[in-house]
Amino acid sequence: MTARSVSRSWLVGAAAALTCLAAVAAVPAARADTSTPILGVAGKCVDVQWSGTANGTTVWLWDCNGTNAQNWAGVGQRGALRAFGKCLDVAGGSHQDGTRVQLWECNGTDAQNWKLENRKLVNTGSGKCLDTLGGSATGTPLQIRGCSGAATQTWAPPGAPPVAAPVAKKGVSTWEFAYEAEGIRDVGAAWYHDWSTSDDVPASAEFVPMIWGAGFVNDGELATAQRSGRTLLGFNEPDLPEQANMSVEHALDLWPRLQGTGMRLGSPAVAFGADVPGGWLDRFLAGARERGLRVDFIALHWYGSDFGDEAANHLMQYVRAVHERYRLPIWVTEFGLIDFSQGRPRHPTPQQLVTFIGKATAALEATPYVERYAWFALPAIGEHAPHGLYHVNGTATEAGAAYRAAGRS
Question: Locate the Ricin B lectin domain: which residues (predicted)?
Fold first, then answer.
């Protein structure tokens, strides 16, 4: 519903790869090294942060993308795991649980000696297993920890199926306020967006950039988006004059620039009528098919004007209709209960919001083709006080408390 042009840069990490190398610092020139990815929890890979090559560079979990930061030499051999000519190393040679792993000059010590056993990568110096700090989020640093049956310690050798993990769907749309990072963490959001290509808040969730409108389709914004995330949201409400305000033809002409980032790509999010034959989104997707353009999922906005017990059903009927028409995954990137039909927004009572949030999030969580959803919006400030989740002092509203409970068993 809004646009921001704040610029933040953080480099995209790549996803990583698996291999075992001989437990020596040098490898005979006659032996050919084979490089391959190491697949871990949620199908993500062991990755060298920002493709760095300096001693001490963090090694973390990231989406697999085939870059050199994913490739580790020496498949199936007990010994070192190498990327960029350096080795996967336990910091300080420590044997303590929680010690981070890093990239370091190969030195033949046991801190760099690994073996793959029953889909676990065991550091022979410590006897501990490679672990993802108990999580599966992109950017999770890797560590050593006592070996267990946890999915976060399970690594797939080449050709084996990746390790599955539940995908957290819940997110928020937000803009900058004093307690933004704290609110994102407290509400349990796995992801967030702020209608821009970058965000300055060091939040504990995945940031998803957006190309808001035609004016943001330029080299600088596209490069920032690539550094900021792995998924890109398309144009914001292009069917409204007060928002991105784009014709279908103009959007289609610009779409190859977004596709050229190589990122997973969400459709333009229309304000309404995504399921209508001949509507803005329908014509856009038809044009994309004709031009051979890629759209990986549908981004939806939905605001209900009926605040009664059937509100959640109305949301899900819309979501289902869109999915049945296009047969693509759905991200509900903005949703809530706000009646815009009277000129001035009309809002439900706090209890109506709480009831709706409970029913709607349960339905969204249970629907397999809904990949993600995001409440509008995190701040309960100014005109958004009636429907936001967190007050200016950082305390949760009644809606915030209800949304915090969503998606948790």
Answer: 35-158
The answer to whether the beta carbons of residues 311 and 304 sit under 8 Å apart is yes
Residue with tokens 């190859």: 256
Q: Are 345 and 338 in contact (CB under 8 A)?
A: yes
DSSP secondary-structure letter at 167? P
CATH of the domain at 101: 2.80.10.50
The CA distance from 140 to 42, in Å, is 12
User: Is residue 195 located within the same domain as residue 278?
Assistant: yes
Residue 382, C-beta contacts closer than 8 angstroms, at least 6 positions apart: none
Question: Is there a single domain that holds both residue 213 and residue 136?
Answer: no
Omega prior to 377 cis, within 30 of 0? yes
User: Does 162 fall in a domain?
Assistant: no
Pick the last residue of a domain from 153, 180, 205: 153
In terms of residue numbers, what domain contains 98?
A: 35-153
> How far is residue 121's CA from residue 103's CA, in Å, rounded to a whole number?
16
What pLDDT, in 10s, does the model give residues 112-167? 999 988 888 999 999 999 988 656 778 888 999 888 767 788 887 655 555 544 56
| Domain annotation covers residue 334 | yes
Verdict on whether the full-model pTM lies above 0.70 = no
197 touches 400 (CB < 8 A): no
Write the CB contacts of 381 (distance below 8 Å, at least 6 apart in sequence): 177, 388, 391, 392
Taking only the tens place, the pLDDT of each residue in 44-102 is 889 999 999 999 999 999 888 888 999 998 645 688 999 999 999 999 999 988 899 99
Q: CA-CA distance, 261 to 66, in Å (whole number)?
A: 15
Q: If you average pLDDT over every residue of the chain, what do you get?
A: 87
What is the signed CA dihedral for 194, 197, 202, 208, rounded to 10 degrees?
A: 70
